Amino acid sequence: MNSLILAILIPFFTSLVLALLNGHFRLEKAVALLSSLTLTIWVFWLLFHVDANGVQVVIIGGWMAPWGIAFVADRLTCIMLCLSSGLGMLVQLYSFWTVTEQQQRYFFYPLMQAMLLGVNWSFNLFVAYEVMLMASYGMMMVGASPAQVRQTLKYIAINSIGSTLFVVGCGVVYATVGTLNMADLAVRTAQIAGQRAGMVTAASMLLLVVFALKAATFPLIYWLPDSYPVVPPGINGYFAGILTKVGVYSLLRVFVLCFRQEGHQFALDVLLFLSGLTMLLGVLGAMCRWDIRRILSWHIISQVGYMVMGIGLAGSPDPRVVQLAVAGTIFYVVHHIVVKSCLFLVGGIAERVSGSQHLKEMGGVLDLAPGVGGLFIVAALSLAGMPPFSGFLSKLVLAQAGLAGGNYVVVSVAVVTSFLTLYSMSKIWSYAFWSEPRRKTALARYRGMMAPTAVLVAFTIVMGTFAQPFLGLATRAAETLTEPEEYIRVVLTAKQNRVAEPPRPFANVVARAEEIR
Amino acid sequence: MELPMAVVIGVLFAAGTYLILRPNLLRVVMGFGLYSNATNLLLITIGGYTRQTGAPFVGADPKTAVGLMDPLPPDIILTAIVISFAVSALMLTICYRVYRDHGTDNPQELPVDDDFTQAGELQSVPAAAYPSDGSGQLNSALHLQVTGESRSADRPVPQREGERR
Q1: What's the structural domain count of chain B?
Q2: Mean pLDDT of chain A
Q3: How far are the Cα atoms of A204, A485, A490 from residue A260, in angstroms, in the given order?
Q4: CA A242, A243, A246 angle in degrees (round to 5)?
Q5: Complex ipTM
Q6: Residue A170: which domain range?
Q7: Which among B39, B91, B110 is the nearest to A168, CB-wise?
Q8: Is A180 on the interface with B (CB under 8 A)?
């Protein structure tokens, strides 16, 4: 399955070509769209392939799995790939209407995602993170207004601290466990007990801080509501949908799959505790804001709380609860990526139609652009968790897992948060959409922007009403994480295709490493 | 070798933290530089660097692989150096832009962004505001027209937009 690497190569070469095409905007748009369409179709095919045939591995270079770089695609990876490239394509379509220049940068994005999600070696996760972050710095600054520049500075600063901790965490994990390959980590940490287990837990807590920072989990949340509002509309849909979820994905991958030492539940308990605070604080922050982008940004935080709650519930001793919690988290991630970016896109249209992003100044978008109101209300109700949309089911699964595990407090916090979300959404609805219109006609053309948004809205309806295939896929993806035997076997026994053994000069080193092992 | 290294790493991290907390953007960037150096030293130490072990594949007998430190940490360090180099270059550029936009390098004097950030400020500065002669000086008339700021173009002065609420 060498073609796995296509998920990285397609966006990589597209971004190079687009950089060369700088200036020919029409050609750039065509190339970018064609490439992202190809990528999306290809990753959906990959999803079905992996779902049917199990985990796929590609080994890069002449080194075998625990030492070399292995790209691994399991079901969770494929789900994330589909979401990021599909969303990337829609956001590009949308931004054709909103951006003027710098189109060549736009495609740089799915590259990071694909790279990140395909990569499965902890340190390469770090490299991919950095590439993703560098691109996000660039995207945040497109246009370079004073507000954007100073917010990007904060964003870079906080992420640099995170990256430093990431390298330190990887180093300490390597020093205590002796490997950075995820499958190998899962094998080795499972055998660790006693005092060394405490050391591994301490090392894993460093990584927890890093991923919690990227995911915007309490108390590391304050960078998000400041920096996301300055991202250009359209692109902020992608930021909102994917970037923090990459943190959630890493938490899920690392703390459910990799760390299995004695007492590894400690990290999950910490996450469970933090998740309640994240949910509540996020929604309270949203309630007191009047700027539509800021409200939506605060809601990202509160929604991340739900996903982290699902990961925290995986600390339960009952394997059935763990299964349900992980499946619920994956389902929630899918739901959230779709709905949240949809809300940001709708918010962008509403801003464009009314000429303001302040709720009290927007006024009467429903009269100016009725279709936009329809899109918003579906997405908003789905976010708050009303049936029949996907938000209801995803919250239901998580609440079931929480009740089965006996975590009544966090489940009640989740329910309260859901009500407060509804309040906050109805505030946007009544001020921005329902009130007296401030102008006669829409300020700018917006119909073209509605098409990508409508696709996302349709997805949340389908996911809510025909949930079984999605839920089944999430459950199977969760199985790979909670019972990783297949994953470990496939990764560690994967042979490099062309070279049977490592290149000659390194053979001794490999032999020695084998001895130490 | 581990104890002195641990002390050095600790001191570097402490100094880096001190610099990052200073109200001066340039020092913040330098603080991150110290952070990345401390991290690299930590990785070297983890790789088992001693007086006896040399750099991987160079100082050692390739047949026996004795006297070889673990090759993975240096590999990680190389990557980390490249990344931190790129990030600090970017940060320096951005610090300069912040200084040019606001006339201050004290992060505490930068405007607070809240609900009442002027809408005009989120609009981008048109490319025409930057002259093509490479002088880097903003065409102040155009810039001011876009951002709605009132300030002297010759010598930027610190100022706040909107009050802190």
Answers
A1: 2
A2: 78
A3: 11, 13, 19
A4: 85
A5: 0.77
A6: 2-516
A7: B39
A8: yes
